[in-house]
Specification:
transmembrane; transmembrane helix; Connexin_N_sf; two-stranded antiparallel sheet; mainly alpha; membrane; 72% helix; 7 helices
Length: 273
């Protein structure tokens, strides 16, 4: 019975030591007790929310441009309406916000939340309850002894992997966004027409503007007329060449006739004399 009670006490002491070690580990490497998965979810959720808000803001403008191009109403709109820069400004704003969010999350992760990542092995300093001892003068005093334990966290490797992966993804996205932002500013500096909604939608967003269906019959009619005119022109050219040839032959016959007539007239005159 005493042996069973000793095993139970040892098990309770071990569980208590594990709990205290885990508490110390959390204080050292996760001060705010924020789980890694929660940080990952919040990180990418904010970026997704920014993208959704941007798409909802520009959706009406993009649809309006597509419909205007389809119905050929854009030419009838005022000049200041067709040259608006709403898409350009909205796109640059969402790029700037995404870039700022990436930098902010990198700083939060590396400097505030998880500055030392999650090491697998760490030393846990446990101080048991004080024990009573009698000194040389006969006074009773409390003595404490600290115990240093080598602890191992099995999930530390996985947490470290995810924190490093999130930091790398945020860094790559921030770099790509910065490059794109610089390229946009360079193209906008070369020509202000690039910042206009229709041109920006076509050149940078790579949107395929539908062709006006009313222009298709006109193209077909013009092509048909051209196809009809080509044989007609060839026929006229052929007739013209043929008429020219006949005219040349007719002139040759006339000249021969006049020469023969003059020769006959001269011979008759010589005989009479």
């Amino acid at each position: 019975m005493n042996r069973i009670s000793a095993v139970v006490r040892k098990s309770k002491a071990r569980n208590s030591s594990k709990a205290k070690c885990f508490e110390q580990y959390q204080k050292l490497y996760n001060k705010f007790s924020i789980p890694v998965y929660a940080f990952v979810i919040v990180n990418f959720s904010f970026i997704g929310i920014v993208c959704v808000i941007y798409s909802q803001i520009v959706k009406s403008r993009v649809d309006g441009l597509l419909q205007a191009n389809n119905s050929d109403d854009e030419r009838r709109q005022p000049c200041n309406q067709t040259r608006r820069r709403k898409l350009f400004l909205a796109y640059c704003c969402q790029l700037a916000i995404r870039f700022a969010l990436g930098i902010i999350f990198i700083v939060l992760q590396t400097q505030l939340l998880y500055p030392s990542n999650f090491p697998s092995n760490f030393k846990c300093n446990l101080t048991p309850r004080g024990s009573h001892a009698v000194n040389s003068s006969g006074n009773i005093q409390n003595t404490t002894q600290s115990a240093l334990y080598e602890c191992h966290n099995q999930r530390a490797t996985k947490k470290t992997f995810w924190t490093n992966a999130v930091s790398a993804v945020n860094g790559v996205f921030a770099l790509l966004i910065l490059i794109e932002f610089v390229c946009i500013l360079v193209r906008a500096r070369k020509g202000k027409k690039f910042m206009e909604d229709s041109q920006f939608l076509k050149d940078h967003l790579n949107a395929v503007l539908p062709q006006n269906p009313q222009q298709e019959p006109e193209r077909q009619d013009s092509q048909q007329e051209l196809n009809e005119e080509i044989p007609l022109l060839a026929y006229k050219k052929q007739n013209c060449c043929k008429n020219n040839h006949n005219y040349i032959i007719h002139r040759e016959h006339e000249e021969k006739y006049h020469r023969r007539h003059r020769a006959t007239y001269r011979s008759q005159g010589s005989i009479s004399t």
